[in-house]
Amino acid sequence: MKITVEMSLYPLSENYTEHIIKFIKSMKSYDRLIIRTTAMSTYISGGYKDVMSMLNTELEKLYHNVPDSCTVFKIIPKDLNIECGYLEF
Question: Which of 42, 50, 38 lies closest to 24 in space, CA to CA?
Answer without folding.
Answer: 42
